[in-house]
């Protein structure tokens, strides 16, 4: 059973604490993505699991055994890095099998393991080439093959696609998902790319400044972000935010009058995703007047910047809805699509 458990994990560089009291249980076969902005600590955490960084405090368990002080080679893990780090003087075949040869695995066993790995990653025709004769995507496939052939219990991926162009990234993303299904190993994948996280993860661990902001399935985090940070980080285009002071149980300004969530006090941030803002040609009882500031054509949709009283909002509308800059129109903010946060603490209110 390749469960991974982090219990009160801490990491300090000198006096600076970069990971604080990190707790997480990863199940056998689960695909967990550490997602967050640059510097939030996701790589440091992954490197601690791999044994490439000391753990300052707490316990790290793989398969139920505490492995804080175990050598990287004895942890049952394999890691795929952002820089493929292939040996330039070796062929593809040698790069893939080198680790097993060094460990003294016998030749027949290496050949037995090589065939399905090479097959799965479409590398058979490149086996005798040197890395310099391969594209970036092919080189990263070799790096994945090198990790796969070790048949690890836990796969660790550190931004493996970030050096590739967008098309190749999409392609390899699908392959990694397929591989995970076939191999059934537990996987931890680090990225700052929310699309990768949303498409690959069983669960996302959203991190910010060395702490967990939210843990959940992609759907859970998208539809019920637990904090303002989670709401702003997940979703493209970004969620709209509007600031209000709670007055007599309502969020109110010259134009807007909405009920405040039960018990809300002080400042509340109202959030709504651009795709949830309804744009209407006619006024109705629950619509608000808005003016078009800018209209961007995005293919299937248009992204419209609106001014609604003192609030700036984005709305994503079908592309056929041609709008002019300066045009007056009417919008509706459906109540069931609103998110409320305490502005001071950043915590979700409803
Ligand atoms: N060897 C080190 N010495 C001191 N500080 C470090 C060291 N390595 C990382 N840090 C700091 O630890 C914090 C977390 O870094 P880490 O590389 O884990 O972030 P990250 O979320 O993976 O970012 P990125 O996406 O940019 O790689 C950062 O503030 C970084 O400056």
TrEMBL record:
Keywords: ATP-binding, Nucleotide-binding, Plasmid, Transport. One of its GO terms (molecular function) is ATP binding. The keyword RNA-binding does not apply. The keyword Transport applies. PROSITE patterns: ABC_TRANSPORTER_1, ABC_TRANSPORTER_2. CDD domains: ABC_MalK_N. Belongs to the ABC transporter superfamily. Residues 4-234 form the ABC transporter domain. SUPFAM superfamilies: MOP-like, P-loop containing nucleoside triphosphate hydrolases. It holds the Pfam family TOBE_2. SMART domains: AAA. This is Sn-glycerol-3-phosphate ABC transporter ATP-binding protein UgpC. It comes from the Bacteria. PANTHER family: MALTODEXTRIN IMPORT ATP-BINDING PROTEIN MSMX, OSMOPROTECTIVE COMPOUNDS UPTAKE ATP-BINDING PROTEIN GGTA.
């Amino acid at each position: 059973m390749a469960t991974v458990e982090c219990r009160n994990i801490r990491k300090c560089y000198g006096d600076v604490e970069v990971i604080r009291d990190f707790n997480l249980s990863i199940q056998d076969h689960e695909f967990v993505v550490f997602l967050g902005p640059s510097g939030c600590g996701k790589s440091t955490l992954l490197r601690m699991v791999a044994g490439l960084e000391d753990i300052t405090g707490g316990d790290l368990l793989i398969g139920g055994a505490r492995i804080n002080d175990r050598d990287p080679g004895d942890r049952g893990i394999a890691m795929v890095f952002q820089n493929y780090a292939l040996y330039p003087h070796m062929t593809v075949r040698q790069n893939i099998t080198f680790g097993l040869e060094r460990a003294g695995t016998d030749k027949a066993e290496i050949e037995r393991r090589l065939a399905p790995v090479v097959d799965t990653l479409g590398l058979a025709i490149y086996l005798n080439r040197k890395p310099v004769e391969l594209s970036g995507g092919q080189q990263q496939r070799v790096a994945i093959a090198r990790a796969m052939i070790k048949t690890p219990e836990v796969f660790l991926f550190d931004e493996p696609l970030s050096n590739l162009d967008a098309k190749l990234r999409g392609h390899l993303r699908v392959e990694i998902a397929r591989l995970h299904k076939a191999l059934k190993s537990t996987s931890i994948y680090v990225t700052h790319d929310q699309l990768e996280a949303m498409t690959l993860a069983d669960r996302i661990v959203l991190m910010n400044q060395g702490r967990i902001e939210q843990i959940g399935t992609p759907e859970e985090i998208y539809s019920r972000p637990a904090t303002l940070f989670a709401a702003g980080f997940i979703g493209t285009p970004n969620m709209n935010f509007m600031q209000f002071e709670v007055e007599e149980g309502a969020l109110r300004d010259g134009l807007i009058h909405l009920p405040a969530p039960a018990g809300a006090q002080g400042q509340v941030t109202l959030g709504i995703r651009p795709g949830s803002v309804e744009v209407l040609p006619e006024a109705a009882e629950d619509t608000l007047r808005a003016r078009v500031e800018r209209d961007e054509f995005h293919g299937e949709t248009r992204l419209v910047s609106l001014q609604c009283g003192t609030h700036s909002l984005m709305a994503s509308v079908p592309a056929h809805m041609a709008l002019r800059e300066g045009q007056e129109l009417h919008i509706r903010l459906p109540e069931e699509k609103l998110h409320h946060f305490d502005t001071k603490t950043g915590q979700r209110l409803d």
